Amino acid sequence: MKKLLVALSFLFFSSLTYAQDLVKKIPKNAFTVATIKGDNVFKLMFVKDFNESFVGKKLLTETSKSLDKNFSSIEDFGINLEKNMYYFNQLSDSITYNCFLIPLKDASKFENLITDKDKKLKVEGEIRTMFLPDSTSLIKWNNTMMYYVTGSIKSSFFADSLKSAKYGIKDIRYQSDDVLTDSATVAVDSTYAAEPMVETEIAPPVLPKKNHKTTGKKKPVTKKKTGKRKKSGKIKKAPEAEEVKMLETTDDAATDAAGSVSDSDQYDNYQKEKVEQDAKIKALTYMWISEQADKIFSTNYESIESNKSYSASLDKNAIAEVWISSLQDVYNSISPEFGRYGKAGIMKGYGSLTSKLFMDKKSFRISTGLELAKEQADSYKKVMNRKLNKKFLKYVDSEKAIGFMGYAIDTKAYLEELPKLMQQTYGSFLGSNKMDEEIALGSELFSLLLDEEAVSKVVKGDALFIINGLNSRDVSYTTYDYDEDYNQTEVTKTKKETLPDFLFMFSSEDQRLMNKLIKYGINKNKVSVSNNIYKIEEKKSPIDIYFMIKDGIVFFGNSLPEMQSISNNTFNARINKAHQKLLSQNNFSFLFNAKNLVGKVPNEEIGGEETAKKFNETLGKMGNVYMKSNPIKGNLVSADISAEIPNGHENALKYLFTLIENASK
Amino acid sequence: MKLRQLYKLILFILFIPALSSCFEIVEEINMRNDGTGDVTLTINLSQSKTKVASVMLLDSVQGYKVPSKQKIQSELAEAVAYLKKCDGISNVKSSSDFNHYIATIGFTFKDVSNINNITKNILAKQKIKATNTSSYSFNKATKVFSRKYQPVANAKSEFNKLKNQDKAVFNGATYTSIYRFESPVTNVTNPASNLSKSKKAVMLKSNIMNLINGKVNVSNQIQLLK
C-alpha cells in the first residue's frame, strides 16, 4: 500500500513537472500565437477512437509505410496529447521565424521517427538538434518539448544595399545591356572605388582582412559563428557580417575579371553569383535560427503570458485559438514593402485579433474578436446603440424561413462618427503631406451638409432581409414553332420557375422623401401603383420587385401575394424563440437553414434527378448556420459563426471526422 | 452592407438552386439551285432569361467572367465587320435582344463552301488548332448538298473535365438545323433528320449533350431531285 502511494505520488509529481505549459517558452514579442488544446481535443475524442478513425488509420499507416515501422497509435509518436501545442512567429525587419512548440511525452519514441539519427543529430546534454536538409529550418528537443523553427529572410531587407553589404550580401539583378553596371552595383572591389556607390564606403574594412583568409568555405565560417553566438546569446550582426564579406570579395574578383563578356557568359555569371548569394543568405538564416532556438531552450525571458491582450484572449473551453498581436503592427511590419505610403496608419486603432474554435455536442463555433483603441470603441458603441425594430419579427416564419439577415445601427450616430473614423484612418495616411487640416475641414463640411438627425429619420438604421420560402411562378419565354414545311415562327411559351420569395424591410420615421421619390417614379413611368403596393417597372432586374410603406416600415419584396397580405394585415408567420433572440439581441445576425430548402426545388430545375438527389442530401445533412455580432465588451468587438451538427452525431469533432471520411470516399 | 452588395447576395441566393439552364441554337440554310443561299444562326437563351439576367448582374459566376452587354454587342459587331470582308459573303445582318437574350447573325453566300472558309479563318484567328471538323458543299451538277461533321476528337474528354455544375449548363440545351431547298429532296443519309411534307426542307433536332458525347452526328448528304 505504501509502495502504491509512493508510486502514485511520484506519478502525480512527474505529471506536475510535465504540466508546465509550453506557453512559457513563447517570447513576449511573438507576433502570432496559435494553440491547439490537446486536452480539449481528446476530451471529445479518445485517443483510441482517433486511432480507429479513418483519419487516424490513414495517418498511422502512411507514417508506418514511409518510415518502415509499425505504429499502432498516435501515442507512438511520443507527443504529449494532453498538452497544448503551439505555433508562433516572430518578425523583424530582416527575418521571420515560424516556430512550433510541441509537448513531448516520450522523447525516445519521437526520436524513433528519425531515420539515420546518428548522422543528423547533434547532442548537447539533454538537448538534441537536427538541421533539416535545406538548412533554413531545424528541430530541437529535450525530454519534454520539441521545437521546430524555420526562418525566412526578408528580401526587402537585403534589397537595401547598405544593410545587405553589412552581411556581405549583394542584391544582384540581371542586366544584359551593361556588364559594368553589374559589377559596379556590386562595387566592393577597390577597383571601382571611384564610382560614387554607397557600397564602396563600406568596402574598405573588408580589404585588410582579405589577406588573412584565403579561401571561403561557408560551413566552417557559420559553425564558428554559431559557437560565438551561444556565448553572446544576442544577435550581434556586424562582426559576423565582416567575416561573411570575405567570402564575397573573392567572388568579386571573379566577376571583375570577366570585364567584357558575351551575353551568355554574363548570364552564366549572373547565375553563378545568384547561387552564391543565395547560399550566403541561407548561411545567415542557419545562423540566426540556431541562435533563436538556443534562446528558447537555454535562457529565461519574459513570456507571452505577460502580454495582457494575449492572456485576456484565452478561453479554457476552446479547441484551438489564434491570436495576432496587433493589426496595426502587422500592417506596419509589412509596410516597408508598400513603400512610402506604408507607414500610414490605415490600421491605426485596430489592436489584437483573436479567433477561437469551439466544438461541442451540438455545434462548431468560431468566435472572432478585435480590440479597438478606446476612441474607436467609443465610436462603435454609439453606432451600435440600436436594436432591431420589434415589428420586423412579425414577418419571420421560422417554419419556412430558409434564411434571414438583420442588422441595426444608429444612422445618426453613424453619420456623426463617420468623419471621426475617416479622419483616424485616412488622416495619418495623408499626414505626411500635411493634409490633417484639410481632412478635418472635410469632416466639418460633411457634418454641415448632412443633417444627421433628418437622415436618421428617413433611414433609422435597422433592416431585415428574409427568405421565407420558395414559390413557383410562370415565366414566359420565346421559342420557335415549325410548320409542316419547317418554316419558323417565333412563339411565346410559359414555364414554371421556382424562386425564393424575399422580403426586405427597414424602418423609416419620415417618409416625405420616399413619397416624393415614388411620385417622381410614377411620373417618369418607372413605378406603377396598385392598392398602395408599388412595382418597379425598370426592367433591369430579372424579377419583379414590389415595395410599400406601412407602419413606419418600408418593405421590398418579389412576391405580390406576400406584399398584399402585409398590406391587409393577413400575413401569417410565427417566429420561434431562438430566432427571436438571435434577431432582437444582436446588432448583426444571420441564419441559413438549409433543411427548409430540401425538396423544395423541382428536380428538373436543379439539373436532373441525380443532381437533385445529391443536392438535397447535402442540404439535409447541414444544420443551421448562424452568425451574430456580440455586444462590445470594453474595447473588444466580436462576432460568432456557428454551425449546428445534424442529429445522430456524438459531437462536432467526431462529425468532422465523418465528414472527412465521406469526402475522401 | 451596401445596397449593391445586398442585391448581389439576393441574386446569389436566387441563383444557387438553379444551376441548369436551357438554350437553343438554330442553324438555318436556305439553298437556291444556283448554289447561292442564306444562312441564319440564332442563339436563344430566353428560356433561362431569369438566370441569365441574374448572371449578367454579377461579375463572374462559377469562376467564369460574365461578359457585359457592351462586350457582347461589340463582339457581335466585330463578327459582322469580319464577315463583311469575307469572300462571297454579302448582306450581313445581326440582331441582339437583351430582354429575351436572343442573338442572331445572318448573311448571303455565293457558294455554301464560303462558310467553311469562315470557320477555318475564325479558328485560325483564335489560334485554335483544329482539323476542319465541319464543312458544307453543294454540287450543282449532281445536286447533292452535303454537311460533313466530325466530332472534335477531344471534345468529349475536355467536356468531362468540366465540373458537374458547369456541365449542367448543357443539360436541356438543344441544337436545330434546317436546310431548305428549291427542289424536292429525294434522299437523306442521316436517319435522325426529318423531311418536311413538301420534301423541300430537312430538319435535325438534337440535344447538345448528345452532340458532345458523339451520340448524334449532324453529318448529312441530301440528294435533290435532278
Can you walk me through this structure?
- The complex is a heterodimer of chains A (665) and B (226).
- Chain A has 665 residues and is of the alpha+beta class.
- Among the domains of chain A are: 381-408 and 461-592, no CATH class; 411-449.
- In chain A, 41% of the residues lie in helices and 24% in strands.
- Chain A is built from 26 helices and 20 strands.
- Chain A has a 20-stranded antiparallel beta sheet, with helices on both faces.
- In chain A, a hairpin with a 3-residue loop joins β9 and β10.
- The two termini of chain A are 53 Å apart.
- The model of chain A is unreliable at 11-19 and 177-259 (pLDDT under 50).
- Chain B is of the alpha+beta class and 226 residues long.
- Chain B has seven helices and 13 strands.
- Chain B has helices spanning 3-15, 49-57, 69-85, 113-125, 155-161, 164-167, 208-213; strands spanning 24-31, 37-44, 60-61, 64-65, 89-97, 102-109, 134-139, 144-149, 174-180, 185-188, 194-195, 201-207, 220-224.
- In chain B, β5 and β6 form a beta hairpin.
- The radius of gyration of chain B is 20 Å and the shape is globular.
- The N and C termini of chain B lie far apart (72 Å).
- Residues 13-19 of chain B have low confidence and may be disordered.
- The A-B interface holds A 402-403, 407, 465, 467, 470, 475, 477-480, 482, 484-488, 495, 497-500, 502, 504, 539-543, 597, 601, 604-608, 611, 615 and B 1, 6, 9-10, 13-14, 17-20, 24, 26, 28, 44, 46-47, 49-54, 57, 99-100, 102, 164, 168, 171, 176, 178, 180, 196-198, 200-203.
